[in-house]
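B., you asked whether I could sanity-check this one before it goes into the benchmark set. Here's the sequence:
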Amino acid sequence: MIKFIAYICFIGSFISFGLSTLGLYKFPDAYTRMHALGIGDTLGVGLIGLGLILLSPDWILRLKLIVVLLLFWIINPTMTHLISKAGIIRGTKPAEETKLMKE
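And here's what the prediction gave me:
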């Protein structure tokens, strides 16, 4: 039963990565593309990590996987935000149909 749940996690991560890759072609500008990839990567890696945690034989390996997942969940959204902010500061304009939050 645990292998079945782990395989469902792997399939879910494959779907997440696939949909985020589709976002590269569908969305109009770099900011919305980066948002799609950031969310897809975070979800996809999380599901892969959950599947690996379920299949790991030792608790020390599970602990290492949890630490790697936590680091990835902190670093990936932060770096996506920093790259987008740098693009805005350098003057890269979003597409006309992109809605911006007013500051």
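One thing to flag: The chain has one domain: 2-89. Otherwise nothing jumped out at me.
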